[in-house]
Amino acid sequence: MPYKLVGRTHTFYGRRLWEIVGLLKDFGVGRMVVRSRFERYPEPTFYRIVSAQPEMDNGDPHKDEDNMRGKILVERVFRGKNCGVANISKAAYKTDFRLIHKHEEAKYLEAYQRCVNTSRERKIFPRTMEMPPLLKFVAKREGHASDVLQIKMANKNNNSRVAEEGEEPNVEVSIGLTTPHSPQLYEGVF
């Protein structure tokens, strides 16, 4: 008789970090682990263990709670960018970690160096742009003299910025529709 699964499934694939670290010498200091959740990205994502301090004999062993807590500091590289030392103790219980063999570590470090060497250039947007048609109509009706819009950006990841006075932008902002991915859907509409 086949098994019938009930409920939602999770996307974790691997072991708990404390299970991996507990089997290694010096609790795996210097070793590299990855989360299977982040293997979907083309850029390298991994953790290098800096220090691990498990809370021993805490919890109920028969409930699979033993050695699930503690403090673990790792050097975090996310999508080819070094994020520095981070405390991932709150995520260490998830069954999502995989130890990288020592002979595979060079492959991850090489991919990381390629990402560092080919860093993305920052997008520089122009200081002003033309108003959208509806906004231009409303501005003209209300008596505004200018039809040029000042650009203000709220950028969290520092990948782009507004050009300084006299600086040449490398991105052009235009008003209008771009070519659609499926032009046959728009036949006869315009």
From TrEMBL:
GO terms for cellular component: mitochondrion. It comes from the Eukaryota. One of its GO terms (molecular function) is structural constituent of ribosome. Pfam families: MRP-S34. InterPro entries: Ribosomal_mS34. Residues 159-179 are annotated as: Disordered. This is Mitochondrial ribosomal protein S34.
